[in-house]
Amino acid sequence: xxxxxxxxxxxxxxxxxxxxxxxxxxxxxxxxxxxxxxxxxxxxxxxxxxxxxxxxxxxxxxxxxxxxxxxxxxxxxxxxxxxxxxxxxxxxxxxxxxxxxxxxxxxxxxxxxxxxxxxxxxxxxxxxxxxxxxxxxxxxxxxxxxxxxxxxxxxxxxxxxxxxxxxxxxxxxxxxxxxxxxxxxxxxxxxxxxxxxxxxxxxxxxxxxxxxxxxxxxxxxxxxxxxxxxxxxxxxxxxxxxxxxxxxxxxxxxxxxxxxxxxxxxxxxxxxxxxxxxxxxxxxxxxxxxxxxxxxxxxxxxxxxxxxxxxxxxxxxxxxxxxxxxxxxxxxxxxxxxxxxxxxxxxxxxxxxxxxxxxxxxxxxxxxxxxxxxxxxxxxxxxxxxxxxxxxxxxxxxxxxxxxxxxxxxxxxxxxxxxxxx
Length: 422
Known about the structure:
The protein is of the alpha/beta class. The chain folds into two domains: 8-101, no CATH class; 108-421, Rossmann fold. The chain contains 17 helices and ten strands. α7 packs antiparallel against α8 (172-180), α9 (194-206) crosses α10 (209-220) and α11 runs parallel beside α13. The chain is elongated, with a radius of gyration of 30 Å. The protein starts with 7 loop residues before the first helix and ends with a helix.
């Protein structure tokens, strides 16, 4: 009976149908009796005109009505349980599950681009509000297990995709432990995660990386969808602000200094049709949080993705990092981050979300040892460019300066809600 379930209208229709059947049956009996119908009606009339009926008739009618309603509800409930027991271990949870699925299906259409821990944490916060989620994931990582599989199978990096698949799962705990399991023995398996091997196996079976992710989305029954920015193996080529050029994401931070530009090698990889379609229908497109040049930028460098973003009517939101990264964004403030997005995409974000929560001295000191510092925000530069600036307390607990998934999701959903009211 919960609003929005789409059930009450059919129950009401069933009741009307039952009443019509009863009236039709009564009319049929009267017709069959013909001239003898008076013999059947006289006893009924005698009861209806008796003193007992005048006293108890209303109560009897109410009792029959309540009993009939209870019997209807009981029979429909057990019919549903009987049917659903073949699909669900707990049929009594069917109504709550259906309501939750319908509620999330009405949520805003959000496309999130990026990679690394930042994207998976963002998806974890958004999935409780909407199932209309599409993650477009960078696949240029060339280190660790992903790097080894790239070389061995000539495929894009699967690592960040695995994290996003787990983040959108209805049972993230169990699936996450399975996908993140890293083999500690076995000459060939040591160092690989099950998730990376899972996607690699699907790629071999399906014959193509994009098809492997389509299959994974269907198999895992996610609250949304996860796709690679491109199904072709690519690497990053970065140019530092001092002019040095470096190929390979795992080497991007070497030698320190901020990155000035990043490109894909080989250039011009194609985007999946599902990604282009999602960007065309999106209400909100989110860039970040995550490493600016090695996570957020790579999907924007795929020509099809960039072209779709330039014409998309969606609200474009950039989530700025809380801290700089040594060897990548050293010394850059929030405006520098946004300017870099504009240089690579050709479009400024409509809104920029920044953290305004004070970072404790312990974490500031810890990051300083790594050559990182707080990303400074000059609100006047955003105002002068006509870019909306959203300041929120986004700092999560723990030893790292990461965004709190739930509070970040609330801020993004508020922007989406404001857009829908315009």
